[in-house]
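Bug report

Summary: C-alpha cells for DUF2264 domain-containing protein differ between web form and batch submission.
Environment: batch mode, default settings.
Steps: 1) Submit the sequence below via batch. 2) Compare with the web form result.

Sequence submitted:
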Amino acid sequence: MDSFGQTTPFSANPLRTKADLANFLTDLLDPLAAHTSPGGARIHLGHTATHYDEAAAQLEGFSRPIWGLASLLAGGGEYSGTQRWVDGFTNGCDPAHEEFWGDMRHKDQRMVECSAIGFSIAVAREKLWDPLTPEAKANVERWLGGMNDKEMPNTNWLWFRVFANLGLAKAGSARFDPQRMKADLDHLDTFYIGDGWSRDGPEGVVQLDYYSSSFAIQFAQLAYSKIQTKEDPVRCEEYRNRARQFALDFVHYFDAEGRAIPFGRSLTYRFAMSSFWGALAFADVDLPAPLTWGVVKGIQLRNIRYWAKQAGAYYPDGTLTIGYCYPNHNMTENYNSPGSPYWCCKSFVSLSLPETHPFWASEEEPYPSSLLNVTKALKHPLHIATNLAGHAYILSSGQQCSYPVKQGPAKYGKLAYSSAFGYSVPVGSGTLEELGGDSTLALSDDGGETWKCRRDTREARFEGPAPGWLRSMWYPWKDVQVETWLVPPTDAAPLWHLRVHRIRTGRQLTSAEGAWAIYGQRKDGRALEPVEGEEFGTMADGGAARAASKAGVSGIVDLGGQARKGTALRTDANTNLMVARAVLPTLMGEHEPSEQDIWLVAAVFGLPSIEDREGAAEGWTEEWKKRPSVPEEISVLIK
C-alpha cells in the first residue's frame, strides 16, 4: 500500500525525448478543457482568492499554459485543443463578450499575463494569430496595447510590457509602440549588476531569487535575444553574454538528481525553476565549459522528471495544486491563484526547437563531475553554494523581498536552503511547533509565547579565504543585536556546516536554533520515536539532537558551551515545503540580559537519502562523530 496515492498521471512517461516532453505537456493541457469557460477565455481551477479580481485570476489560468502551447506549436507540434485558446483570444479581448477580461488599469495583474500572450503571437503566429478574424485581431491589438500608457511596478514586470509589444510587432500591428519598448528595455538594463546577474528592481533592492533567472529576467532576456536578434543585435548579444556568465553560477542551484534549491517566493511555479536551461537552447547560446548541450539537457529534463513524479503537485485529474511538493497554502503568496502554478509551462520552451538542435540531438549527460563536491561563493546573491553533503544547498545572508510578502522571513531570511530538505514556513503565531524554525535562529522575549526570525539582514558580506564565510547583522529588537557567521563544510567534515552567533541583549531571551527539517515518520508510517544506533528514529542527548528517517539524517550539536539543550521537535503538519510531516532537531537555550557578548556556536549535520534508497548511506554515524572546526579568525573573536 506504500504506493497508494503516491503516483501521478505522468509517472509512466520517461521524459527523455522531445516526443516525451510533448506528451507531458499534452497531458497537462488536456485536463484544463473541463475547467474552461464556454467561450474559451477563462479557466477556473478553484475557489481560493488573490489580491486581484476573479476575472484576472481566470485569465491567469488561460494565459499561463500558453507558454507551453506556443512552444509546442512553434516547434512543429500539434495540439487538438488549440482552438480553445484561439477562441479565448477572440472572446477575452472583446468588450462586448461576457468573458471579456476587462481593460488594464495601472499596475494590473492583467499585465503579467500579457507576456505569455505576446510570446505566443511572436513565436506561433500562424497557429494562434492568423486564424483570428480581422475584428478579433483588432480587439487583441487594442487590449494588449492598452498597457503602453499605464503605470507598472519598477520590477521584472516591465518585461511583460516588452513582450506585449513584441507580439504586436510580430503581428504587424499599429498598436506596437517601439519607443515604449525601448524605454522599458533601457530601464530594465539598469537592474544589471554584473557577472550575468540582475536584481529584481532598482538600486537598493537586494532580491536575487528565481525571478532573476528562470521565472522572469534571464528567461525574458534569452527569449528576446532569439526573437529580436536581427532588429536589436547589440542588445541581444549582450543578453546572451550575460546568460553565459550567469549559467556558471546558476548551475549550483541544482543537484545531481535534478532538484532545484527552494529559495524565495513563487515556488508554486515549480519546474519553471529550470526554464532558464531550455531558454539557453532557444536562444542558441554558445555554452561555457563545463556546460555542454548534453549537460544542459540533463539538468532540465531531470528537473522536469522530478516534478512529474511528485504526487502532491497534482490533483487526480492532472491539474496542478497550489503548493510545492504537496498542496500547501501556508507557503503561497497573496498573488497565487489556482492558475498560477502553470507558470511552469515556461519549461516547455525547448519544444520550439527542431530535433536537430544540439539540445535534442545530444545524449543526456549527468551533472558535471567537475562541479560535484565543490563549494563556491556567489558574490551577487550573497550565497555560498555547496554540494559536499550529497545535496545542493546554500548558506544565505543579505537578501530580503523589497516589499512585504507572506512568510518573507522564511523565504529569504533563513540561514540555509537545501534541494533535498527544502525549507519550512509558519502555520501559526503561537507555539514553536507552529513556527517551522528550520535553518534559523528563532528568538523569544516572552518565554516562548511569540518568536522572531531573521528577516531584515544588514551588513552582509563575505570574509575569509575562499570560499570564505558569510557575516551579517540582525536587529530583532532595539536592545538586541545578533551577529552571525555562516561557515560552509570542509573536506575534513563534509556533512557539517557551522553557525556562530554573537548576541548582545538588554532583555531575557529564549532561543531555538533548528537544523534541517526532515521527513518524520518510521518505515511503518508512524511518527519517529527515540532510538539508539542507525535505525530510523530521533536522538536528543544534552547539547545535541538528531533525526533519521527514509529521507536521510539531520542533526545539530552545540559547540559553544552555552548549555543549550537538544530536542527532536515534531513540527506542526504542513510547515515544510517538501514533506507534510516533519521532525526538526533543535537546540534550546535561555539567555539573561548581559553587557557581555553571548556566543552560540552550532554545527549542523545533513545527509539526505539518494534516489532509490531509503535512508542515509551506510557509515553515516562515523561522519556524525566528526566535528567541524571554527575558523581561527572567528575563534579569536570568541576568545
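Above is the batch result. After comparison, the two runs are identical; trailing whitespace caused the diff. The longest helix spans residues 233-250. The chain has two domains: 18-370, 373-620+630-638.
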